[in-house]
Amino acid sequence: MIIVLNFGSQFAHLIARRVRDLGVKAEILPFDAPAEEIAKLNPVGIILSGGPASVLEKKSPRPDKRIFDLGVPVLGICYGHQVMAQMLGGKVVKDEHREFGKEELEILSPRRLFAGLSKKQTVWFSHGDQVKKVPMGLVRTAYTASCSNAAFADVQKNFFGIQFHPEVTHTTNGSKILSNFLFSICKAKKDWKIASVATNIIAQIQDEVGENHVVVGISGGVDSLVAATLIHRAIGNRLHAVFVDTGLLRKGEVEQVASYLKKHGFKQLHVIDASRTFISRLKGVTDPEQKRKIIGHTFIEVFEKTIRNELKRYPIKYLAQGTIYPDRIESASTSKTAAKIKSHHNLTLPEKLGFNILEPIKDLYKDEVRRVGLTLGLPRELLWRHPFPGPGLAVRIVGDVTLERIHILQEADAVFIDQLRKSGEYEKIWQAFAALLPLKVVGVMGDARTYEYVIALRAVDSIDGMSADWHKIPNELLEKVSSAIVGKVRGVNRVLYDITQKPPATIEYE
Ligand code: XMP
Which of 219, 344, 397, 510 to mutate to test the pocket of ligand 1 (most atoms within 8 A of CB)? Predict the structure, then answer.
C-alpha cells in the first residue's frame, strides 16, 4: 500500500483516491505518524500531501524525519515538496511571484517520475512559498517561468518533490505522474479491485462475527444500505436492520428502501415510525445546532428502545455502522489542522449499549462504496443518490420545522430531483435539493393574490463536500422546474436558484 501523510490539505483524500483509482491501496495517516507505525504497515511508497502552512513558520507541521531512512520512495507534493526540501538540507523562501492556478512546466529530465511526458506540461500550483535551493546531492528536474525548482529528485534514494498538484484534473498528465511513481518507482502491485474488496469484506465479517447476531441502523442513505447488504451476505438473518423513520427523509424514501430490503431477503427488518416524536420535539426550535442535537439524541433513544424491546430475544453482540473512510479520517487526528464547522452526528451511535462496533465499509471512499454496491447487485438508482445529511430535511427548512413545511419541501424536492433525473443532469451534479425559506411572499395565481413560501433550489459541483461551486443548470431546465414546482406544489409561489459557492456559503442551509 501507499501511505499518504496528511499536512492538512483538502487534497489529501483526493491523492488517496487517485492512487486507489490506479489500483493500489492508499491509507491516510497524520503528518506526524511515527516512522515505526508507518513501517509496520509495510508501504511501498509514501506521499507527503500539500497543506495550508508555510515551512517558514516556526511551528509548521513536519513528518518524522526517520521516514527518509525507511528505504521507501517518497513523493512530496506542494507543501510536502517544500518540507522535504527543507528537511533534506535545501532552502525554502517566500515566493515574490506567488503562483496559483495553471502554469506551464518545463521538464529537464523526462525520465522516472516524468517518463513518457513531453517537455512542456500544464500543471496546477497553489502555494505561496518555493524551493530556492535544492538539497545537496539532489537534482532539479523541472521549472516554470517564476519557480526555478518546481521539481527535484534523488534518484538513488527515490525521493521526489513536485511543487504542483498531480492529483487535480487541471494538471493535464497528473495521473501519468502518479502512475509513474506507483508502478515504475514504488513497484506497487495493482491489487485494489472492487470485486475482490467486496469478497474480502464479506469474509472478514464472517470471521469477526462468527455465530453472533448484528444490529445495523438503516438511515435511508447509500452507506448504511451497502454496509447492511454486505453484512446480510455474510451472516443472513442474523442481521437485524433497524430503520428509524424520522419523518425527515425525502419523499417516498422510507418506502423505497424498505421495500427493496424486504424484496431482497432481509427477514429481520424493523421499520420504526418515530416521525411524531421527532416533529414534536422539534416544535418551535429554530437554532440549527439545537435541531441537530435533538435529532441525534432522539435517534439514539428510539434506536436503543427498539433494541431493548423488539430485539431483546436475540444474542446481539455487534452494532454495525456505515462509517466510510472520510468520516473516520475527518473525525480523527489527521484533521488536527481543520476547523470544526458544524457537528455531524453520524459517528455517535450508542456506546453505552456495550456492543462491539462493526464498520464494514470504513476503509472505502463514497465512489468505492457505490461500486461495491453495484457488484452486490444493488440498483444504480439507489446507489447514485446524492449525499443526504443525517438530520435530514430539518436542516433544509430554515427555522421552525412543521408537518406542513416538511410536506411542502418533500413535494418541491421530488419535483426538482425528478426533472434532474429525466434531463440526465442528476448524475452530473454532486448534490442537489430544495430548501424551504420561512418567508411568505406575494404572488398572483389566476386572478387571486397569493401569500406563500419561497423554495430555494441548490445544486452543487464538489469533490468531497468541503468546497463547492454552484452547478450551471441549463436555463430551460431551471424554468421547467420552477413552473412545475409552483404549478404542482401547494403553498409555494416563488422559486430561487442559489448561486453561492462554498465557502463562503455552506451546501446545506443550516
Ligand atoms: P455543508 O452544509 O457543511 O455540508 O457544506 C457538507 C456536506 O455534509 C453534509 N452534511 C451533513 N451530513 N450530518 C450529515 O450526515 C449533518 O449534520 C450534515 N450537515 C451537512 C451535506 O449534505 C454536504 O454533503
Answer: 344
Q: What is the extent of the structural domain holding 479?
A: 403-497
Task: Quote the CA–CA distance of 136 and 163 in Å, as a whole number.
Answer: 18
Choice among 168-182, 236-250, 281-295, 351-365 with the minimum mean pLDDT: 351-365
Say how many Å lie between the CA of residue 291 and the centre of ligand 1.
14
How does DSSP assign 393-405, residue by residue? GGGTB-S---HHH
Grid coordinates belonging to 230: 454486505
**375 and 434 part of one domain:** no
Which of residues 185, 206, 230 is at a domain's end? 185
Q: What's the pLDDT tens digit per position in 444-486?
A: 988 899 999 999 999 999 987 888 999 999 999 999 999 999 9
Which ligand 1 atom is the nearest neighbour of the CA of 430? 24
Atom of ligand 1 nearest to the CA of 386: 24
- Mean pLDDT value across the chain: 92
Q: Based on the domain organization, do 95 and 240 belong to the same domain?
A: no
Q: How many CB atoms lie within 10 A of CB 437?
A: 16
Percent share of the chain, pLDDT over 90: 84
- Residue 210 and residue 180 share a domain: no
Count of domains for the chain? 3
Average pLDDT over residues 169-190: 96
Neighbouring residues of 73: CB distance < 8 A, sequence distance ≥ 6: 44, 45, 46, 157, 158, 159, 160, 181, 185, 186
Q: Do both 374 and 356 map to the same domain? A: yes
Ligand 1: list residues with CB < 6 Å. 292, 341-342, 344-346, 387, 389-391, 431, 465, 502, 506-508
In this structure, the answer to whether residues 53 and 118 fall within a common structural domain is yes
Tell me: do 230 and 344 sit in the same domain: yes
For 31-69, b where at least 16 C-beta lie within 10 A, e where not — what string? bebebeebbeeebbbbbbbbbbbebeeeebbebbeebbe
Q: Is the same domain home to 77 and 44?
A: yes
3-class DSSP assignment, residue 438: strand
